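forwarding from the other thread:

> can someone predict this with protoporphyrin IX containing FE?

sure thing
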Amino acid sequence: MATNPVPDHVPPEMVGDFNLFSSPGMSPTPNGDPHAAVACVHAGPRIFYSPWNTRTGQGAWVITRAADQRRVLQETENFSSHRNIFASALGEDWPTIPLELDPPSHAVFRSMLNPLFSPKRVAELEPAIRERATTLITRIASSGTSCDAMKDFAYPFGVGIFLRFLGLPEHRLETFVAWAKDLLHGDDVRRPAAARTIVAFIDELAAMRRKKPVDDFMSFIVQAQVEGRGLRDDEVRGIGVLVFVAGLDTVATAIGFDLAYLARNLEDQELLRKEPDRIVRAAEELLRAFPSVHMIRVARKDIDFEGAPIRKGDFVSCATMIANRDPAEFESPNTVDLTREGIRHASFGYGPHRCLGSHLARREIVIGLEEWLARLPPFRIKEGTAPITHGGSLFGIENLILEWG
Ligand code: HEM
Protein backbone atom coordinates (compact mmCIF):
# COMPACT_ATOMS: atom_id res chain seq x y z
CA MET A 1 0.00 0.00 0.00
CA ALA A 2 1.44 3.41 -0.94
CA THR A 3 2.00 5.82 1.91
CA ASN A 4 0.40 9.24 1.66
CA PRO A 5 2.41 12.38 2.33
CA VAL A 6 2.08 13.47 5.94
CA PRO A 7 0.55 16.98 6.21
CA ASP A 8 3.01 19.70 7.31
CA HIS A 9 1.20 20.37 10.59
CA VAL A 10 1.74 16.79 11.82
CA PRO A 11 4.96 16.53 13.88
CA PRO A 12 7.06 13.64 12.47
CA GLU A 13 7.33 12.04 15.92
CA MET A 14 3.51 11.74 16.02
CA VAL A 15 3.35 9.60 12.86
CA GLY A 16 2.63 5.94 13.58
CA ASP A 17 2.96 3.05 11.18
CA PHE A 18 -0.24 1.24 12.20
CA ASN A 19 -3.44 1.20 10.16
CA LEU A 20 -6.59 -0.91 10.13
CA PHE A 21 -6.19 -1.89 6.49
CA SER A 22 -2.71 -3.25 5.86
CA SER A 23 -0.91 -3.65 9.21
CA PRO A 24 -0.15 -7.26 10.22
CA GLY A 25 -3.36 -9.20 10.79
CA MET A 26 -5.57 -6.70 8.92
CA SER A 27 -5.54 -8.10 5.37
CA PRO A 28 -7.63 -11.24 4.75
CA THR A 29 -5.88 -13.96 6.77
CA PRO A 30 -6.80 -17.62 7.32
CA ASN A 31 -7.31 -18.23 11.06
CA GLY A 32 -6.45 -14.57 11.67
CA ASP A 33 -7.32 -12.57 14.76
CA PRO A 34 -7.51 -8.91 13.65
CA HIS A 35 -8.92 -7.83 17.03
CA ALA A 36 -5.86 -9.11 18.87
CA ALA A 37 -3.60 -7.56 16.23
CA VAL A 38 -5.13 -4.13 16.92
CA ALA A 39 -4.31 -4.28 20.61
CA CYS A 40 -0.63 -3.38 19.95
CA VAL A 41 -1.61 0.29 19.75
CA HIS A 42 -2.19 0.51 23.50
CA ALA A 43 1.52 0.19 24.15
CA GLY A 44 1.97 3.44 22.20
CA PRO A 45 0.75 7.03 22.57
CA ARG A 46 -2.83 8.16 23.24
CA ILE A 47 -3.03 9.61 19.76
CA PHE A 48 -0.90 9.28 16.63
CA TYR A 49 -1.22 10.11 12.93
CA SER A 50 -1.63 7.22 10.49
CA PRO A 51 -0.97 8.32 6.88
CA TRP A 52 -3.46 5.77 5.54
CA ASN A 53 -6.41 4.83 7.69
CA THR A 54 -9.62 5.17 5.70
CA ARG A 55 -10.98 3.02 2.92
CA THR A 56 -10.50 5.88 0.50
CA GLY A 57 -6.83 6.06 1.45
CA GLN A 58 -6.74 9.23 3.53
CA GLY A 59 -4.71 9.74 6.68
CA ALA A 60 -6.31 10.07 10.10
CA TRP A 61 -5.47 10.78 13.70
CA VAL A 62 -5.93 7.52 15.59
CA ILE A 63 -7.38 7.75 19.10
CA THR A 64 -6.12 4.76 21.07
CA ARG A 65 -7.83 5.22 24.46
CA ALA A 66 -11.54 4.51 24.97
CA ALA A 67 -12.04 7.58 27.20
CA ASP A 68 -10.53 9.88 24.54
CA GLN A 69 -12.72 8.29 21.87
CA ARG A 70 -15.80 9.04 23.97
CA ARG A 71 -14.66 12.67 24.17
CA VAL A 72 -14.36 12.91 20.37
CA LEU A 73 -17.73 11.27 19.79
CA GLN A 74 -19.45 13.48 22.35
CA GLU A 75 -17.86 16.81 21.30
CA THR A 76 -19.90 17.32 18.16
CA GLU A 77 -19.07 21.04 18.18
CA ASN A 78 -15.42 20.06 17.50
CA PHE A 79 -15.81 16.80 15.57
CA SER A 80 -18.39 16.34 12.82
CA SER A 81 -19.74 13.12 11.37
CA HIS A 82 -20.71 14.90 8.14
CA ARG A 83 -18.76 13.16 5.37
CA ASN A 84 -21.30 12.21 2.69
CA ILE A 85 -19.27 9.09 2.24
CA PHE A 86 -21.90 7.08 0.42
CA ALA A 87 -22.98 9.89 -1.91
CA SER A 88 -19.43 11.03 -2.68
CA ALA A 89 -18.63 7.53 -3.97
CA LEU A 90 -21.25 8.33 -6.61
CA GLY A 91 -20.04 11.87 -7.24
CA GLU A 92 -23.13 13.20 -5.42
CA ASP A 93 -23.71 15.25 -2.31
CA TRP A 94 -26.30 14.13 0.27
CA PRO A 95 -25.85 12.78 3.80
CA THR A 96 -26.93 9.42 5.10
CA ILE A 97 -29.41 10.22 7.87
CA PRO A 98 -29.06 10.50 10.83
CA LEU A 99 -25.41 9.35 10.82
CA GLU A 100 -23.95 12.15 8.73
CA LEU A 101 -25.98 14.96 10.29
CA ASP A 102 -24.61 16.92 13.22
CA PRO A 103 -26.69 18.35 16.06
CA PRO A 104 -29.11 20.09 16.10
CA SER A 105 -30.57 18.65 12.84
CA HIS A 106 -29.42 15.16 13.86
CA ALA A 107 -31.83 15.15 16.82
CA VAL A 108 -34.81 16.05 14.63
CA PHE A 109 -34.41 12.89 12.54
CA ARG A 110 -33.21 10.71 15.37
CA SER A 111 -36.36 11.46 17.42
CA MET A 112 -38.48 10.61 14.42
CA LEU A 113 -36.72 7.24 13.99
CA ASN A 114 -36.30 6.23 17.66
CA PRO A 115 -39.78 4.68 18.12
CA LEU A 116 -39.18 2.34 15.17
CA PHE A 117 -36.17 0.80 16.92
CA SER A 118 -37.43 0.88 20.52
CA PRO A 119 -37.17 -2.13 22.87
CA LYS A 120 -40.98 -2.45 22.58
CA ARG A 121 -40.83 -2.65 18.79
CA VAL A 122 -38.00 -5.19 19.02
CA ALA A 123 -39.99 -7.28 21.52
CA GLU A 124 -42.80 -7.44 18.95
CA LEU A 125 -40.36 -8.84 16.40
CA GLU A 126 -38.97 -11.44 18.79
CA PRO A 127 -41.23 -14.39 17.78
CA ALA A 128 -40.31 -13.81 14.12
CA ILE A 129 -36.61 -13.64 15.01
CA ARG A 130 -36.80 -16.92 16.92
CA GLU A 131 -38.79 -18.61 14.22
CA ARG A 132 -36.25 -17.57 11.60
CA ALA A 133 -33.37 -18.90 13.73
CA THR A 134 -35.03 -22.25 14.41
CA THR A 135 -35.98 -22.78 10.78
CA LEU A 136 -32.43 -22.19 9.57
CA ILE A 137 -30.76 -24.22 12.32
CA THR A 138 -33.19 -27.13 12.00
CA ARG A 139 -32.40 -27.23 8.30
CA ILE A 140 -28.66 -27.25 9.05
CA ALA A 141 -29.03 -29.97 11.72
CA SER A 142 -31.00 -32.23 9.40
CA SER A 143 -28.69 -31.89 6.44
CA GLY A 144 -25.45 -33.34 7.83
CA THR A 145 -22.67 -32.76 10.31
CA SER A 146 -21.08 -29.68 8.80
CA CYS A 147 -22.07 -26.26 7.43
CA ASP A 148 -20.74 -22.88 6.43
CA ALA A 149 -22.06 -20.90 9.37
CA MET A 150 -21.83 -17.58 7.50
CA LYS A 151 -23.57 -18.69 4.31
CA ASP A 152 -26.05 -21.10 5.89
CA PHE A 153 -26.90 -19.20 9.06
CA ALA A 154 -25.40 -15.80 9.96
CA TYR A 155 -26.24 -14.01 6.70
CA PRO A 156 -29.66 -15.50 5.96
CA PHE A 157 -30.60 -14.98 9.62
CA GLY A 158 -29.44 -11.38 10.04
CA VAL A 159 -30.48 -10.25 6.60
CA GLY A 160 -33.82 -12.10 6.69
CA ILE A 161 -34.85 -10.37 9.95
CA PHE A 162 -33.70 -7.10 8.58
CA LEU A 163 -35.72 -7.46 5.39
CA ARG A 164 -38.75 -8.32 7.45
CA PHE A 165 -38.13 -5.26 9.60
CA LEU A 166 -38.03 -3.08 6.49
CA GLY A 167 -41.02 -4.83 4.95
CA LEU A 168 -39.00 -6.10 1.98
CA PRO A 169 -39.68 -9.40 0.21
CA GLU A 170 -37.62 -12.29 1.51
CA HIS A 171 -37.14 -13.98 -1.85
CA ARG A 172 -34.67 -11.21 -2.66
CA LEU A 173 -32.44 -12.13 0.26
CA GLU A 174 -29.52 -13.38 -1.79
CA THR A 175 -29.60 -10.32 -3.99
CA PHE A 176 -29.44 -8.05 -0.94
CA VAL A 177 -26.59 -10.04 0.60
CA ALA A 178 -24.63 -9.75 -2.66
CA TRP A 179 -25.23 -5.98 -2.83
CA ALA A 180 -24.12 -5.54 0.77
CA LYS A 181 -20.99 -7.62 0.24
CA ASP A 182 -20.01 -5.69 -2.88
CA LEU A 183 -20.68 -2.40 -1.17
CA LEU A 184 -18.80 -3.15 2.03
CA HIS A 185 -16.04 -5.41 0.81
CA GLY A 186 -15.92 -5.04 -2.99
CA ASP A 187 -13.21 -3.47 -5.12
CA ASP A 188 -13.23 -0.01 -6.74
CA VAL A 189 -15.53 -1.18 -9.53
CA ARG A 190 -18.02 -3.29 -7.58
CA ARG A 191 -18.41 -0.85 -4.70
CA PRO A 192 -19.77 2.15 -6.65
CA ALA A 193 -21.85 -0.17 -8.83
CA ALA A 194 -23.45 -1.67 -5.70
CA ALA A 195 -23.97 1.82 -4.24
CA ARG A 196 -25.78 2.88 -7.41
CA THR A 197 -27.97 -0.23 -7.35
CA ILE A 198 -28.90 0.29 -3.70
CA VAL A 199 -29.77 3.96 -4.25
CA ALA A 200 -31.92 3.09 -7.26
CA PHE A 201 -33.65 0.38 -5.23
CA ILE A 202 -34.35 2.70 -2.27
CA ASP A 203 -35.63 5.48 -4.58
CA GLU A 204 -37.93 3.04 -6.34
CA LEU A 205 -39.25 1.60 -3.08
CA ALA A 206 -39.87 5.11 -1.70
CA ALA A 207 -41.78 6.10 -4.85
CA MET A 208 -43.92 2.95 -4.59
CA ARG A 209 -44.71 3.56 -0.92
CA ARG A 210 -45.52 7.21 -1.54
CA LYS A 211 -48.07 6.10 -4.12
CA LYS A 212 -49.47 3.23 -2.08
CA PRO A 213 -48.38 3.09 1.58
CA VAL A 214 -48.49 -0.22 3.46
CA ASP A 215 -47.56 -1.04 7.08
CA ASP A 216 -43.76 -1.01 6.78
CA PHE A 217 -40.63 1.02 7.48
CA MET A 218 -40.48 2.85 4.16
CA SER A 219 -44.18 3.79 4.27
CA PHE A 220 -43.57 5.27 7.73
CA ILE A 221 -40.65 7.31 6.43
CA VAL A 222 -42.39 8.70 3.37
CA GLN A 223 -45.35 9.78 5.52
CA ALA A 224 -43.28 11.11 8.44
CA GLN A 225 -43.17 14.77 9.43
CA VAL A 226 -40.14 16.69 10.65
CA GLU A 227 -40.52 20.27 11.85
CA GLY A 228 -44.05 20.37 10.46
CA ARG A 229 -43.20 19.20 6.93
CA GLY A 230 -42.88 15.94 5.02
CA LEU A 231 -39.46 14.52 4.10
CA ARG A 232 -37.76 15.48 0.84
CA ASP A 233 -36.74 12.71 -1.58
CA ASP A 234 -33.04 13.10 -0.73
CA GLU A 235 -33.84 12.77 3.00
CA VAL A 236 -35.90 9.63 2.44
CA ARG A 237 -33.01 8.25 0.41
CA GLY A 238 -30.45 9.21 3.08
CA ILE A 239 -32.41 7.31 5.74
CA GLY A 240 -33.22 4.32 3.54
CA VAL A 241 -29.64 3.84 2.41
CA LEU A 242 -28.22 4.13 5.93
CA VAL A 243 -30.63 1.69 7.51
CA PHE A 244 -30.10 -0.73 4.62
CA VAL A 245 -26.33 -0.60 4.98
CA ALA A 246 -26.11 -0.40 8.79
CA GLY A 247 -28.20 -3.48 9.42
CA LEU A 248 -27.14 -5.83 6.63
CA ASP A 249 -23.65 -6.93 7.53
CA THR A 250 -23.12 -6.01 11.18
CA VAL A 251 -25.29 -8.63 12.88
CA ALA A 252 -24.09 -11.45 10.62
CA THR A 253 -20.48 -10.47 11.31
CA ALA A 254 -21.03 -10.44 15.07
CA ILE A 255 -22.65 -13.88 15.01
CA GLY A 256 -19.83 -15.19 12.81
CA PHE A 257 -17.10 -14.03 15.19
CA ASP A 258 -19.08 -15.42 18.16
CA LEU A 259 -19.51 -18.87 16.61
CA ALA A 260 -15.84 -18.94 15.56
CA TYR A 261 -14.83 -18.17 19.14
CA LEU A 262 -17.14 -20.86 20.57
CA ALA A 263 -15.96 -23.40 17.98
CA ARG A 264 -12.42 -22.98 19.34
CA ASN A 265 -13.43 -22.91 23.01
CA LEU A 266 -15.44 -25.99 23.78
CA GLU A 267 -15.55 -25.38 27.54
CA ASP A 268 -17.31 -22.06 26.96
CA GLN A 269 -19.75 -23.79 24.61
CA GLU A 270 -20.47 -26.29 27.34
CA LEU A 271 -20.96 -23.54 29.93
CA LEU A 272 -23.54 -21.78 27.75
CA ARG A 273 -25.26 -25.02 26.79
CA LYS A 274 -25.63 -26.04 30.42
CA GLU A 275 -26.58 -22.59 31.63
CA PRO A 276 -28.32 -20.77 28.77
CA ASP A 277 -29.25 -17.93 31.14
CA ARG A 278 -25.65 -16.84 30.81
CA ILE A 279 -25.98 -16.20 27.07
CA VAL A 280 -27.19 -12.58 27.45
CA ARG A 281 -24.08 -11.59 29.38
CA ALA A 282 -21.81 -13.76 27.25
CA ALA A 283 -23.11 -12.03 24.12
CA GLU A 284 -22.09 -8.66 25.60
CA GLU A 285 -18.57 -9.92 26.26
CA LEU A 286 -18.38 -11.32 22.72
CA LEU A 287 -19.59 -7.98 21.35
CA ARG A 288 -16.83 -6.32 23.37
CA ALA A 289 -14.14 -8.70 22.19
CA PHE A 290 -15.15 -8.81 18.51
CA PRO A 291 -16.62 -5.47 17.42
CA SER A 292 -16.72 -4.56 13.73
CA VAL A 293 -17.15 -0.80 13.23
CA HIS A 294 -14.53 1.89 12.67
CA MET A 295 -15.97 5.37 13.26
CA ILE A 296 -14.48 8.49 11.67
CA ARG A 297 -15.03 12.14 12.50
CA VAL A 298 -13.86 15.32 10.78
CA ALA A 299 -12.37 18.20 12.80
CA ARG A 300 -14.60 21.29 12.51
CA LYS A 301 -11.83 23.63 13.70
CA ASP A 302 -8.18 23.62 14.76
CA ILE A 303 -7.92 21.81 18.08
CA ASP A 304 -5.07 20.78 20.33
CA PHE A 305 -6.15 17.31 21.42
CA GLU A 306 -3.94 15.62 24.02
CA GLY A 307 -0.86 17.24 22.46
CA ALA A 308 -1.89 16.56 18.85
CA PRO A 309 -2.26 19.63 16.60
CA ILE A 310 -5.48 18.57 14.84
CA ARG A 311 -6.38 20.98 12.05
CA LYS A 312 -9.81 21.76 10.59
CA GLY A 313 -10.71 19.06 8.06
CA ASP A 314 -8.42 16.38 9.55
CA PHE A 315 -9.94 12.94 9.97
CA VAL A 316 -10.07 11.45 13.46
CA SER A 317 -10.43 7.69 13.79
CA CYS A 318 -12.32 6.09 16.69
CA ALA A 319 -12.11 2.34 16.11
CA THR A 320 -14.41 0.34 18.38
CA MET A 321 -11.92 -2.55 18.23
CA ILE A 322 -9.23 -0.32 19.71
CA ALA A 323 -11.51 1.07 22.47
CA ASN A 324 -12.71 -2.39 23.47
CA ARG A 325 -9.19 -3.71 24.02
CA ASP A 326 -8.06 -0.71 26.10
CA PRO A 327 -6.45 -2.05 29.30
CA ALA A 328 -7.49 1.14 31.11
CA GLU A 329 -11.13 0.08 30.64
CA PHE A 330 -11.00 -3.72 30.85
CA GLU A 331 -8.90 -6.04 32.94
CA SER A 332 -7.05 -8.50 30.68
CA PRO A 333 -8.76 -7.03 27.60
CA ASN A 334 -7.44 -9.70 25.25
CA THR A 335 -8.99 -12.51 27.27
CA VAL A 336 -12.57 -13.43 26.44
CA ASP A 337 -14.29 -13.98 29.78
CA LEU A 338 -17.93 -14.92 29.32
CA THR A 339 -18.61 -14.23 32.99
CA ARG A 340 -17.15 -10.70 32.86
CA GLU A 341 -19.36 -8.17 34.64
CA GLY A 342 -20.09 -4.48 34.10
CA ILE A 343 -19.12 -4.48 30.45
CA ARG A 344 -19.22 -0.92 29.10
CA HIS A 345 -18.08 -1.59 25.55
CA ALA A 346 -17.87 0.74 22.57
CA SER A 347 -19.22 -1.65 19.94
CA PHE A 348 -22.37 0.39 19.32
CA GLY A 349 -20.54 3.71 19.41
CA TYR A 350 -21.10 6.56 21.84
CA GLY A 351 -22.75 9.99 22.03
CA PRO A 352 -25.60 11.21 19.83
CA HIS A 353 -24.93 8.72 17.02
CA ARG A 354 -24.91 5.66 19.26
CA CYS A 355 -26.36 2.78 17.26
CA LEU A 356 -30.06 3.10 16.63
CA GLY A 357 -30.37 -0.64 15.95
CA SER A 358 -28.61 -1.86 19.10
CA HIS A 359 -31.71 -3.35 20.76
CA LEU A 360 -32.56 -5.25 17.60
CA ALA A 361 -28.95 -6.36 17.07
CA ARG A 362 -28.61 -7.59 20.67
CA ARG A 363 -31.83 -9.62 20.53
CA GLU A 364 -30.82 -11.19 17.23
CA ILE A 365 -27.40 -12.19 18.52
CA VAL A 366 -28.74 -13.64 21.78
CA ILE A 367 -31.58 -15.54 20.08
CA GLY A 368 -29.21 -16.79 17.36
CA LEU A 369 -26.79 -18.17 19.96
CA GLU A 370 -29.56 -19.63 22.15
CA GLU A 371 -31.11 -21.56 19.29
CA TRP A 372 -27.76 -22.64 17.82
CA LEU A 373 -26.53 -24.07 21.12
CA ALA A 374 -29.90 -25.69 21.89
CA ARG A 375 -30.17 -27.45 18.52
CA LEU A 376 -26.64 -28.45 17.53
CA PRO A 377 -24.15 -30.65 19.43
CA PRO A 378 -20.65 -29.38 20.32
CA PHE A 379 -19.09 -27.95 17.17
CA ARG A 380 -15.60 -27.00 16.06
CA ILE A 381 -13.85 -25.53 13.02
CA LYS A 382 -13.86 -28.24 10.33
CA GLU A 383 -10.48 -29.90 10.03
CA GLY A 384 -8.53 -28.70 7.03
CA THR A 385 -10.48 -25.41 6.82
CA ALA A 386 -9.59 -22.00 8.17
CA PRO A 387 -12.00 -19.09 8.56
CA ILE A 388 -10.70 -15.98 6.81
CA THR A 389 -10.85 -12.82 8.87
CA HIS A 390 -10.04 -9.26 7.86
CA GLY A 391 -9.66 -5.76 9.26
CA GLY A 392 -10.57 -2.57 7.41
CA SER A 393 -13.38 -0.11 7.96
CA LEU A 394 -15.66 -3.01 8.90
CA PHE A 395 -13.95 -6.04 10.39
CA GLY A 396 -15.30 -9.32 9.06
CA ILE A 397 -15.16 -13.10 8.89
CA GLU A 398 -15.78 -15.36 5.90
CA ASN A 399 -16.12 -19.08 5.23
CA LEU A 400 -16.75 -20.30 8.73
CA ILE A 401 -16.95 -24.05 8.11
CA LEU A 402 -18.05 -25.85 11.27
CA GLU A 403 -18.45 -29.58 11.97
CA TRP A 404 -19.91 -31.67 14.77
CA GLY A 405 -20.66 -35.26 15.70
C1 HEM B 1 -23.91 -5.99 15.90
C2 HEM B 1 -24.55 -5.16 15.10
C3 HEM B 1 -24.30 -3.67 15.02
C4 HEM B 1 -23.19 -2.95 15.36
C5 HEM B 1 -21.87 -3.47 15.93
C6 HEM B 1 -23.49 -1.55 15.08
C7 HEM B 1 -22.62 -0.50 15.33
C8 HEM B 1 -22.91 0.83 15.16
C9 HEM B 1 -22.04 1.93 15.50
C10 HEM B 1 -20.63 1.79 16.08
C11 HEM B 1 -22.68 3.09 15.21
C12 HEM B 1 -22.14 4.52 15.40
C13 HEM B 1 -21.49 5.01 14.12
C14 HEM B 1 -20.84 6.37 14.30
O1 HEM B 1 -21.05 7.04 15.32
O2 HEM B 1 -20.10 6.78 13.38
C15 HEM B 1 -23.96 2.73 14.66
C16 HEM B 1 -24.91 3.65 14.23
C17 HEM B 1 -26.09 3.28 13.65
N1 HEM B 1 -26.61 2.00 13.52
FE1 HEM B 1 -25.72 0.29 14.14
N2 HEM B 1 -24.74 -1.46 14.55
C18 HEM B 1 -25.28 -2.73 14.51
C19 HEM B 1 -26.55 -3.07 14.05
C20 HEM B 1 -27.46 -2.19 13.54
C21 HEM B 1 -28.76 -2.54 13.03
C22 HEM B 1 -29.32 -3.96 13.02
C23 HEM B 1 -29.34 -1.39 12.58
C24 HEM B 1 -30.67 -1.14 11.94
C25 HEM B 1 -31.57 -1.99 11.65
C26 HEM B 1 -28.40 -0.30 12.84
C27 HEM B 1 -28.64 1.03 12.54
C28 HEM B 1 -27.80 2.08 12.87
C29 HEM B 1 -28.10 3.47 12.55
C30 HEM B 1 -29.34 4.00 11.83
C31 HEM B 1 -27.03 4.23 13.05
C32 HEM B 1 -26.86 5.76 13.01
C33 HEM B 1 -27.40 6.38 14.28
C34 HEM B 1 -27.25 7.89 14.35
O3 HEM B 1 -26.48 8.48 13.59
O4 HEM B 1 -27.94 8.51 15.19
N3 HEM B 1 -27.29 -0.82 13.42
N4 HEM B 1 -24.09 1.34 14.65
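DSSP finds 15 helices and 15 strands in the chain. thats all i got for now
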